[in-house]
């Protein structure tokens, strides 16, 4: 149980990553991914990378610069421009719905204007899911200068689009619905220089 704990990615740039195991019975037609990050990086970095053998950027949360997030589904992306962080924890949730192609992005409990992405697409179920690196091939192909350095916590993946109430609940660390990946019952494997530590503050 990683309650009130964080992954600390200690080096910059880094070849370290964390592999997450999720039990996906079928391909995803809807999903929500949420996580909390704390970093002083200004270079591009990957937060959440979900690759299949057919598509390395099947789901990707990527931060190319401090005032921008990119959300990929099936190799295509939309950009959400954000205020440059005040060197504090940032909580992001991104959700996607195949039937409408609507992509939602929430930062620190607030929604950004919705965008359109990959309507009718289906996300493959046999996936390599990594924190800390951006995959250019299934489970590998890393560019060290896209690596994450800093602290990550509260990582979740659901096979549904969360309601606005649940998006806010995720930001506030309140009770959440059962998830494919849940921080409090995460099945993970650390590869390289990543340390699990207590969160320094709430």
TrEMBL record:
Key words of the record: Acute phase, Calcium, Disulfide bond, Metal-binding, Secreted, Signal
Disulfide bonding pattern of the chain: 34-93
Cellular component, GO, one term: extracellular space
Residues spanning the signal sequence: none
Co-factor binding details: Binds 2 calcium ions per subunit.
Main location: secreted
Domain of life, source organism: Eukaryota
Residue span(s) of domain Pentraxin (PTX): 3-202
Oligomer and partners: Homopentamer. Pentaxin (or pentraxin) have a discoid arrangement of 5 non-covalently bound subunits.
Record's protein name: Pentraxin family member
Organism whose genome encodes this protein: Quiscalus mexicanus (Great-tailed grackle)
Lineage start: Eukaryota, Metazoa, Chordata, Craniata, Vertebrata
Designated gene of the protein: Ptx2
């Amino acid at each position: 149980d990683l309650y009130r704990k964080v992954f600390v990615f200690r080096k910059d740039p880094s070849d370290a990553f964390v592999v997450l195991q999720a039990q996906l019975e079928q391909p995803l037609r809807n999903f929500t991914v949420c996580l909390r990050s704390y970093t002083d990086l200004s270079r591009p970095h990957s937060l959440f990378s979900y690759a299949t053998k057919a598509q390395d950027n099947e789901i990707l949360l990527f931060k190319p610069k401090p005032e921008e997030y990119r959300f990929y589904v099936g190799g295509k992306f939309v950009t959400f421009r954000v205020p440059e962080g005040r060197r504090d924890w940032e909580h992001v949730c991104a959700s996607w719905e195949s039937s409408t192609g609507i992509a939602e992005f929430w930062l620190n409990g607030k929604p950004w204007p919705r965008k359109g992405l990959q309507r009718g697409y289906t996300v493959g179920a046999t996936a390599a899911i990594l924190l800390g690196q951006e995959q250019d091939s299934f489970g590998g192909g890393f560019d060290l200068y896209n690596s994450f350095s800093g602290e990550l916590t509260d990582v979740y993946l659901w096979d549904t689009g969360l309601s606005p109430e649940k998006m806010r609940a995720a930001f506030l660390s309140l009770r959440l619905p059962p998830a494919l990946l849940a921080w409090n019952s995460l099945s993970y494997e650390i590869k390289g220089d990543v340390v699990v530590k207590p969160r320094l503050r709430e």
